[in-house]
Amino acid sequence: MQATILQMLREQPGDFVSGETMCNSLGVSRTAIWKHIKELQDAGYQIEAVRNRGYRLQSSPDLVTAVELRDGLSTTLLGQSIVYRETIDSTNNLARELANNGAIEGTLVIADEQQQGRGRRGRDWFSPPQSGVWMSLILRPELPLAHAAQITLVTAIALARALTRLTGVQAGIKWPNDILFNQKKCCGILTEMHAEFDQIHHLVLGIGINVNIPQADFPADIEHIATSLQAVKGTPIARAKVVQTVLEELEPLYRQYVADGGFGTLREEWKAHNITLGNNIIAHTAQGTIEGRALDIDEFGVLLIELPDGAHKKIYSADIMF
Ligand code: BT5
After folding, report:
1. Which of 13, 41, 44, 126 has the greatest number of beta carbons closer than 10 A?
2. What is the pLDDT of residues 56-115, one digit of tens each?
3. Helix, strand or coil, per DSSP, at residue 104
């Protein structure tokens, strides 16, 4: 109901929408309309109410509530169900719980703030309130287990496209899960999965994007390696717009990945956005540290590096430095 009221107000920018018009199109009483307007005002929307004229939207807060995200979202799978929390430990945790309880594919879990946002291998992910996109998607691709990890690379393409579009500055993919601007990390992906036998039961695709974080607000340990969309673009960006743009870029790529049975047909586009290949790199893997030149990725998203003695080595998972 609130989403529809908001939509009606936004369809008449700068103009009043009469209480009567709202009552008629929503089929509810004037008191009910007023109650919803009051709730929107309490949430931070500035809505002017004038007797005999109606309601006029003056400004909207930068929210990532379901009401904001739905307004103008054009996807048909991702974000059809939205679960919003003001604060949470980690959106990946709630998404996993919902997935285990049968949540539909495409369910989006999003929070204004994470108390225990996490990266890979138990690392922390800085997730302050009102300034980032901290979200997780529940996916149920019918693919063999071996293809699950490739969703991270598919998502990286969508993010590179979306973040470039939003800032007007070229974003680059650092294998496997980082999106960078000018060597600094703006976004990370954390894919977690639940599988039985050889079949994926569900994937939880966690995405963290620094949106309106001033450079000086990053903690000292990441200040020199992190950046935000605002720092890159020079002006703040509405977080709901960031979410919508990412979902709209990801949906067709995700459908292609499922239809084609893997990441192979998207490999060339990944390479076009990547900033890893061609560099001399240090790869920290669970088995140890490897140094060499990043040559290519194969159709499974595995990184191929050339060692100093000319031999080739495949790397399945690592932290890369160059
Ligand atoms: C990642 O891990 O890059 C995955 C980040 C995923 C975050 C999302 S937010 C929604 C969902 N819910 C969660 O709890 N997580 C996901 P990794 O490659 O391991 O990088 C972690 C490292 O990045 C840390 O050790 C820091 O050095 C650095 N870091 C932490 N917070 C950062 C931030 N906000 N921006 C840039 N770098 C950060």
Report:
1. 126
2. 999 999 999 999 999 889 999 999 999 999 999 999 999 999 999 999 999 999 999 999
3. coil
Q: Percent of the chain scored above 70 by pLDDT?
A: 100
Contacts of 119 (CB under 8 A, 6+ apart): 125, 188, 190
- Rounded Cα distance, 150 and 157, in Å: 11
Q: Would the annotation count 172 as a binding residue?
A: no
* Nearest residue by C-alpha to atom 35 in ligand 1: 226
Q: By alpha-carbon position, which residue is closest to atom 33 of ligand 1?
A: 126
Report residues whose beta carbon is within 6 angstroms of any ligand 1 atom: 90-92, 114, 117-120, 123-127, 134-136, 177-178, 185, 188-190, 206-208, 210, 222, 226
For residue 135, how far is its CA from the centre of ligand 1 (angstroms)? 12
Burial 225-238 (b: 16+ CB within 10 A, else e): ebbbbbbbbeeebb
Task: Quote the pTM value.
Answer: 0.95
Cis, peptide link before residue 176, omega less than 30° from 0: yes
User: Which spans in 57-149 are helix H?
Assistant: 66-70, 91-100
| Domains of the chain and any CATH numbers | 2-59 (1.10.10.10), 66-273 (3.30.930.10), 280-321 (2.30.30.100)
Q: What is the ipTM of this complex?
A: 0.99
- How many A from CA of 262 to the centre of ligand 1? 25
Cα(125) to ligand 1 centroid in Å equals 4
Q: What are phi and psi of 178, to 5 degrees?
A: -115, 145
